[in-house]
Amino acid sequence: MQKGCRLGGPLREYCADLHVHSAFSRATSRECNLAGLAGWAGVKGIDVVGTGDFTHPGWLSILREMLVAAEPGFFRLRGETIPSPLPGHPPVPASVRFVLSTEISCIYKRHGAVRKVHNLVYVPDMASAERLAARLAGIGNIESDGRPILRLDSRDLLEMVLEEAPGGFLVPAHIWTPWFSLFGSRSGFDTVEECFGDLAPYVFALETGLSSDPAMNRMVSALDRFALISNSDCHSPSRLGREANLFATGFDFFSLRDALKENRCETFRGTVEFFPEEGKYHLDGHRACSVRLVPEETRRLGGRCPGCGRPLTVGVLHRVLELADRHGPLHAPDAPGFFSLVPLPEVLGEILGAGPGTKGVMGLYSRLVALFGSEFGLLLRAAPEDIREISPLLAEAVARIRAGRVFRQGGYDGEYGTVRVFGEGEVARLSGAGDLLCEGRSRRDRRR
User: Fold this and answer.
1) What's the pLDDT at 372?
2) Distances (CA, A) of 17 to 20, 241, 250, 305, 348
3) Which residues 6+ apart lie within 8 Å of 286 measured at CB?
4) Which terms in the Gene Ontology molecular function aspect does this entry carry (predicted)?
5) Beta-strand relationship, 149-150 and 97-110
6) Cα–Cα distance for residue pair 231/243, rounded to 1 Å
7) DSSP tally for the chain: helices H, then strands E
8) Which of these, 93, 92, 33, 39, lies nearest to 63 by C-alpha position?
9) What is the secondary structure of 117-159 as a DSSP string?
């Protein structure tokens, strides 16, 4: 656990992943439907999920048909149960809530430069979603992609949200990624005010993205007033919860929104994070030449690839350091916390020496979810002794992850980084007889 408040408290605690996509977005799984999202949310331990893509007419029609109002601004699926996405598991209660969300790609010219900024929008009701979608349809094509690409200034999009969706709000998405973000090295701005102008006071939260974490962002004093949220931005339901948000507040849209506005750990507990090195743009580099660089090396090379001489893609760490005015992060005493985790299938894959999506890994994953209730139930909340009863090796892995004692190699130029829990040969040395995880590993080894 990193700097911030501890889990626990008298108010209802829940987990929310507020940035996802439907099957109407490009490069997404066909399983990105409401049942698929709700099923995997239950497996992960997520209580509230963004719908994504409500501006798309086809998806909005499905949302109207399949969702019913629950708590204020939250929706639930019609029907009492949904199929579990894990083979052999019984249907699960349809208790997951949805919040109407979308992502807009704003591409426009400002101050003599082309800007490409992705923004997340959240609205509390179907009527607001319909009004905003109709307004955007008058600007560009909202049917070709669930995440529409519009010639629309971010400031003007925010104005439309305020006009058409009272109670709604806008959050700049994955703010540091090079190509399509508020602070992106290729097409972004240096301040929130420069991007949103007179409406900047209406922006109260920023999405950090997979390649940065709150500690990096808290090196920039200009971001002190903003809540920092984290989401999966998943294009497949099984990737839900790669990052997520933890709340202890009223279970409704408006309480969630107000917890972000207040930005205190009493109600906005904090975020579940990737280790930022695992993100695709943490370091600088040039993927075509397999060149991965830290900011100091990039500056020494004049921003040029040493292999081919082309411009390097300047990553998130470099960009944060450009705007930072502190040598280290400064967290307010009541700041939300953050918890850096490694997805459980990756941990199991490392232990078993197999890919995270292989049959053996997913079979073991399914058993562990049944034992601990959810993936987050194991990684975030399970007592060490309870994990140790099942597998001392897994207990050691979880202890290391919670303490941040992992091996990291940063991602760059669209290539994911790697985070490993164990060093070379450690799994074999630590394996013990009767360990649930090692049993599967030893059976595989005997077949070789």
Assistant:
1) 96
2) 8, 6, 16, 37, 23
3) 305, 307, 308, 310, 312, 313, 413
4) helicase activity
5) parallel
6) 5
7) 16, 19
8) 33
9) EEEEEEESSHHHHHHHHHHHHTTS--SS-SS-EE---HHHHHH
Q: Which two tokens stand for residue 247?
A: 């709340």
Domain boundaries, the chain: 13-278, 344-446
Task: Name the amino acid, one letter, at 348.
Answer: L
- 3-class DSSP state of 98: strand
From the candidate CATH numbers 1.10.287.130, 3.40.50.300, 3.20.20.140, 3.30.870.10, the one assigned to the domain spanning 13-278: 3.20.20.140
Between the alpha carbon of residue 31 and those of residues 34, 37, 201, 228, 356, the distances in Å are 9, 8, 38, 29, 18
Output the pLDDT for position 433: 56
Q: What is the pLDDT of residue 439?
A: 60
pTM as predicted: 0.94
Helix, strand or coil, per DSSP, at residue 407? strand
Instruction: Return the half-sphere exposure (C-beta side, CA atoms, 13 A cut-off) of residue 117.
Output: 32
